[in-house]
Amino acid sequence: MEKIKIDLDLVLPEVPDERDACVQRVIAAMQQHKGIEKAHVVPADEQNSARLCFHFDPDEISLEQIQHFAQEAGASISRKYGHLVIEVEAIREMIEGSAVESQLKNVNGIVDASVSATGNIRIEFDQTATDKATILKEIERQGVKIKATTTTADDHETGAITEDDEDGEEHDHSHAQPGSSPWREYLPAIISFVMLMVGLAADNFIQPSFFTGWVRLAWYGIAYLPVGWPVAMHGIRLLFKGDVFTEFVLMTIATLGAFYIGEYPEGVAVMLFYTVGELFQSAAVSRAKRSIKALLDIRPDTATVLINGKSKVVRPTAVKVGETIQVKVGEKVPLDGVILNDGSSFNTAALTGESKPSTFRKGETVLAGMINQEKVVELQVTKLFNDSSLARILTMVQEATTRKAKTEQFIRKFARVYTPIVVFLAIGITLLPYLFVDNYVFNDWLYRALIFLVISCPCALVISIPLGYFGGIGAASRKGILFKGSNYLDLITKVNRVVMDKTGTLTKGVFKVQEVRSFDITEETWLPLAAALESKSTHPIAAAVVEHVGKSADGLAVNTLEEISGHGLKGTIGGKVVAAGNGKLMQKLGIPVPQEATAISDTVVLVGVDGKFAGYLTIADELKEDAQEAVRALHAMNVQTTMLSGDKQAVVDKVASVLKIDRAFGDLLPENKVEKVEQIKKEPGAVVAFVGDGINDAPVLALSDVGIAMGGLGSDAAIETADVVIQTDQPSRIPVAMKIGRATNRVVWQNIALAFGVKAIVLILGAGGLATMWEAVFADVGVALLAILNAVRIQRMKF
Asked: Which parts of this chain are annotated as the region Disordered (predicted)?
């Protein structure tokens, strides 16, 4: 059995993500060919882009045939499948979002659709059966207003198209309808409530003689219309589209049935409290949406381009790579770019959640979305807006709420089955007693059936569960933690093994001189000589020596420089022969090294001058300030910790000892890290999260159950490969992410238990005639309100 790796770009040109659904289609198509035993994705790393790996029998299929079949399959799939991410005006009700999703899935050519109440729709479609324009028209036909579209159709070429870009008007990221106000939204419920209270007072206390018959019916009928008419219209509209069993239809039938049997106040009350519940839900969704979409509000509206010394204000999407832009104090950075002048301090809170400003100097890269705080800067653009880290993160945030957890998917499917069953049971409760009960009274049994219908409405489940996940994603984003979907919020709760890379994850990845020791020559004499010699090397360890010594080495000229591979440097400075390197170099030059220097476990630079041992410097990578806190918090959550590193085992053991990490493995190549994670995954009951910097560690991030990228804001590989991105580069956010996941999961299951428990009890009482419509209202709207309040708690929790 042999292997061949083919660049993914050759098979699916410009594919945005190696976990795109079309990649799996190519793999499935290729595995149908005789001779190909296995196919899988090799994620992108620092040296290579993502590749498809095929294990094949050379006696049955040739390399040329594999390449031909792969490109043929890729071209066929690219022509057939397209993807859309559509930003819409927020869908007011989650139930309506579920209905829109159901309708879209029934449209010819749409392979899959996911609708989030926060205002995002993700669609995969068959381009041979439909097209983008048809899909957008279908969405608008559902009464949903489109704000922006990101498409990966045809050859997966990615680009954002917004209505604002087309008409040249300013972006408006507000989510309120034009001219709307809270009073207008609440006015129907207020009118119905006042009329209901007056009616109840007339029925039970004032009891005027005229308040009977048609007058009473008309009064309660008028009270019903402000809250009942919109719900009924929703139901009728969906009814004509073939969606019969919806909550809107359920509530309309139940309340009109109450009017039919003369229970007018109860009919108004049910619809009024249902509407109040919807308003409450709308407010809760808006709050969650503000948290989730906080990043979307940092999208820059304009960019000031400098052309021949003159400035021109344009849209960020119009700026090309290599052009120079100017960012004034208080302005958002519109695109990723390198600072050309002296630099400035920038507020990065919108991207990282950290309020402390960061200083960037000439030659350093700043990212779109940061806010300039100190002085005017000029940047050379390094990426197009749609390729910038900000744009990619925005897309990830938009898609996050459309990637639903299994619990949420189950509840949606359950509601679609549960609702019609309850409707037929209600019909049975109304009609079947006629066959078995002697003194059968139709209105009595109809009343019981109506109670049954009201109780059965799955609002509490359909509303509170996605709201809980929205809250979790929002709470995480405020902490600088981006989950790629609510499914990862669920999965991270099961993690019991956290495997961490050392450099860049637990340590800063910046080498510093820890100790300087002199022997035969004074430190003031040999240290500047060592720094002058090391200044001729680009190695990070050499840079650490130069930085430590500072300006005292300036002006020292190095002659006859010799770099001895794997050993170090040798040169002549001011007539003195200076050598700096490892023990092998000292041995090669015949310079005796004391036992003390050879026994050091840290990285060490040994220095010799004119054949004498001058001294040594120990170099170490600094631990991050919160690394110990992170490991301690993981242990408190009963999570085993493992550290992997390419450093020598002695250095790794020392770091593990300081941090109290359970297991530590050093001297590892990237492929060895993959092997270690595979071994850990085979442990009984192990659910593994791997935390890395998202570049060299991309293969391991993809292999783990949950891949967490540290400091992934500027790393394309991290954004593409990881399931969770920690923007702040702080390891202490790992346990925070797990706590948010556990809290979300706990709230979701509390709501499921509450809804099912109360509904089951009141359903039994209602069917037996022991519960009235008022108890039914509590079992439906009351439980929904309690569940919503419980879900909203996540947004207020401190993690």
From this structure: 147-181
- Number of domain units in the chain: 5
Q: Are 9 and 49 contacting, i.e. CB atoms less than 8 angstroms apart?
A: yes
Task: Examine the pLDDT at 154 and tell me if it is beyond 50.
Answer: no
Q: Is residue 338 part of a domain?
A: yes
Q: Which is the catalytic residue, given 501, 705, 723, 780?
A: 501
Specify the CATH number for the domain of residue 652: 3.40.50.1000
Q: What is the mean pLDDT of the chain?
A: 78
Nearest 5°: phi and psi at 289?
-65, -40
C-alpha–C-alpha distance, residues 677 and 663, integer Å: 12
Distance CA 653, CA 649 (A): 6
| Same-domain check for residues 646 and 669 | yes
Would residue 748 count as lying in a domain? no
> What's the mean pLDDT in 644-666?
86
Distance (Å, whole) CA 707 – CA 722: 5
Statement to judge: residues 502 and 527 lie in one domain: no
String of DSSP letters for 719-737 = HHH-SEEETT--TTHHHHH
Nearest to 689 by CA among 697, 604, 153, 360: 697
CA dist., res. 173 & res. 44, Å (int): 34
Q: Using an 8 Å Cβ cutoff, are 738 and 495 in contact?
A: yes
CATH number for the domain spanning 334: value is 2.70.150.10
Answer yes or no: is 645 within a domain. yes
C-alpha 543: how far from chain center? 37
Active-site residue 501, yes or no? yes
Distance between CA atoms of 597 and 583, rounded to whole angstroms? 9
Do 494 and 627 fall within a single domain? Answer: yes
Q: Among 571, 587, 622, which residue terminates a domain?
A: 622
pLDDT tens-digit map of 203-245: 888 888 888 888 888 999 999 999 889 888 877 877 776 666 6
> 53 and 13: one domain?
yes
- Which residues 6+ apart lie within 8 Å of 205 measured at CB? none
Residues 653 and 706 in one domain: yes
Query: Angle formed by the axes of helices 406-431 and 94-105, to 10°?
Result: 90
* pTM flag (> 0.70): no
Q: Find out whether 686 and 497 touch, Cβ atoms under 8 Å.
A: yes
pLDDT in tens, 35-53: 888 888 776 655 566 778 8
Let me know whether 492 and 577 are in one domain: no
Residue 536: strand, helix, or coil: coil
Question: In which residue are the tokens 């910097």 written?
Answer: 693
Q: Give the pair of three-digit tokens for residue 31.
A: 């595995």
Q: Do 521 and 607 lie in a common domain?
A: yes
Nearest to 243 by CA among 98, 349, 111: 98
Asked if residues 257 and 450 have their Cβ atoms less than 8 Å apart, the reply is yes
pLDDT of residue 726: 84
Cβ-based neighbours of 764, under 8 Å, separated by 6 or more: none
- Both structure tokens of 280: 């409450």
Are residue 617 and residue 515 in the same domain, yes or no? yes
Q: What's the average model confidence in pLDDT over 563-582?
A: 88
**Which residues span the domain enclosing 697?**
479-507+623-739
Angle of CA points 30, 32, 36, to nearest 5°: 65
In a domain, 57, yes or no: yes
Q: Which of 622, 641, 660 is the last residue of a domain?
A: 622
> From CA 405, how far away is CA 723, in angstroms rounded?
13
Burial of residue 682 (CB within 10 Å: 0-12, 13-18, 19+) is exposed
Summarize the confidence of residues 594-608 as an average pLDDT: 84
pLDDT at 716: 56
- The SS3 assignment for 622 reads strand
Contact present, 754 and 762 (Cβ < 8 Å): no
Q: Which CATH number goes with the domain that contains 535?
A: 3.40.1110.10
